[in-house]
């Protein structure tokens, strides 16, 4: 079966094709959500929710090249909705504090703190680049921006990471 | 090559995204430059760290099976229904028109979703149901309730028998929709079709609404082409007639207002998220999902909705009723709700992170209502609300007033809240409330700070600088690093700069001149604190005071002369902020960001569209090319979005789908209220305290009073009455100058109607409006106990000079006659 045929089946709501999609993209969806909510359990729940929404809106799918973008956008909106609903309780920050995980390595702990301080979209980009290994073009499609925008943004995030790590090193 | 230029290339290189041709150049440079080489190794280290730090962000288990289990059974029905259509039968049975045009093609698969009944090749929806038919080339047909279509084998021919549907057709030169009325030929376009008529369709009527592209309509009379934005009625044997834009705007406005009316809460308020609870209460089917939004802004949204009703001329006295909802009662209830939640400090709405939006919008609604009704209950509320607003204004480091932010006097300013505050102050000044010059100068000063002189672009919370990619420092909701708020705050600035018609800009009154004299005397006081106080007070008079200070510039008391000079200097500086040469550049910038309906990119921005229209109409009072450019784009965007207005008779009808950039805040409710306000602007109504209709428009309207057609004359007279008292001087002028007896008669009649309306308002005021429910607990002695002083010059009831009370505006004698307490405005029990 070619990818295009698979995509046609997916559009028609074929369960096997959808299973394939989940297998292929579940970690990406999880990471996009995690970038916004920073909580493992919640991210897992929202990953499920994202795929359910995707299943129910397969008719919104038109271009196989935009599959990642479509899925990431559902994931992102699901995550943002969740974050927004949490805001009134103001429990978000304490709830998340220990979640990115602590390592034994000092540097690692520092890097994770820096990550926590980034804005959610920047975190999302980091996960897509460093863990999903997506190219600029793919990230651009997933985050609805231009490739050059991705390049510039990643450069800025890198510089920010470098500065923050340096500062922390100096302050210790 | 400069190191600075290469920095970003190092990042590209690390990501394997640098073209081979540039890699060589970079590597050569790295060999010779220690700084860049160090940067590369630092970034590599940072990269390794990030990879390690994010490596644990992954699912701990495979969720495939779990998700498969959770997929709803309903989806089974959603999985494909594939129709292989028997073409021969279709052609014989179903094609009343254009049979010879069809070409046979390969059988195609269709995807059908939603609640539809499929029998052979007939697809049908019942009451309250909706379905989508997707053709193989991704063309989409959305069937509204009670609709029936038959699909041809080629799928490039659809037979529509009844109901309404939206078509989004890809590039298919052969695509046709046949109906009992006419045939519709299209190619790569979007349009809506509605068929009305009896069961036999003998007297059927078709409504075609072209959303984009071009549509050709063929009936027994001939072939006609229609372009985007056009709406047409057609029958089988008459030429199709276009529905004009003005009618369409009026229709959409009516639908939007009715949606808002249907979703009011019992207590008079409106809820952004909770509005859904009111769905179905008025016999409409379906739920208005999704609502989107954040209920933190409910009070502000209530204000915005009330402004939409007030803009359309519905005041608490309005008798207008639609489907058993009385708009006057609805506005009255809404205003009462806002008055009820106002606290002793004047604040409307709870303490929250963004409370100023709530306070300002609610106050603006009350002020506009006061302006329309002169209801004294509202007067007191506006007074308190203005005091709160003034207290919330920020001060700069040198003690001068600046702008506002989400929360009172927090030191930060932003161009959005400040703009809303300016609208409230403008409306209040028109309603006769005192607005000090320094408060307004604060607004000018903030925008002066925030505007980039080169481009005219306004920043959101600081001055915009070209180094920002597109504007202010706020991120778009779609993750684009786009600084999206830019055009909206630039428009907001232009709106804030529209002229204030305030008394404070006029000559000083005699009382004020006395005050100035007293203050000048104090400038020579020995106590430096008193001198400082006098200087501050004098500055508050603004530029008007200069003439009265000039005689003291060379006063023999050097202390006083110096102070006088410093006050004049300060006032002149403040004038600088009011003269803004950047406005032309700002408006040119707006014209680069024209409204366009594209829900996918979240470029839809009703907040910007509303302010942009206000700004462009404020700047260009006549039909200049710039204004035409904006209006064309705005109308197209609104007409495009009108298809979103829900199915006919469904609960969603009249509302806009919450796909707007700010839907996460205001949701469907605020979007619909703003949609209504934009439509009102184009209908020439007063919106958000701003009246953009130019005097030339009024003059043109008055000329229509001499029109040959009696119908046009009647319509014109009605329009002039609906515009209100603003037209009075123009009518009086016309009355003096014209010799046309008809026109003179019409002018007198309109003036008489306006006078009667005014009288009626005043009568309501005199008779009952200022009396509160309940009895005065002190038997009418509140006044004496509080020792409240009178400062209103004439009584609202008997017009006697120098006797009225500040909060209820009637004199003691009238209060006694009416049997009410002058202070608490409750009845005195006899």
Structure class of chain B: alpha+beta
Shape of chain A: globular
Strand tally of chain A, please?
A: 0
What do the pLDDT scores of chain A average to?
78
**Radius of gyration of chain A from CA coordinates:** 18 Å
Q: What percent strand of chain A?
A: under 5%
SSE order of chain A: HHHHHHHHH
Assembly level: heterodimer
Q: Count of helical segments of chain A?
A: 9
Structure characterization notes:
The complex is a heterodimer of chains A (172) and B (830). Chain A is mostly helical and 172 residues long. Chain A has helices at residues 3-11, 15-37, 40-56, 67-86, 92-96, 106-117, 120-131, 136-143, 147-171. Helices cover 76% and strands 0% of the residues of chain A. The termini of chain A are far apart. With 830 residues, chain B is of the alpha+beta class. Helix content of chain B is 45%, strand content 11%. Chain B contains 28 helices and 21 strands. In chain B, the strands form four sheets. Chain B has a 15-stranded mixed sheet that branches. In chain B, helix 1 runs parallel beside helix 3 (34-54), helix 12 packs antiparallel against helix 13 and helix 24 (710-723) packs parallel to helix 26. The N and C termini of chain B lie far apart (95 Å). The chains are: A mainly alpha (172), B alpha+beta (830). Chains A and B meet through helix 2, helix 3, helix 4, helix 6 and helix 7 of A and helix 1, helix 3 and helix 4 of B.
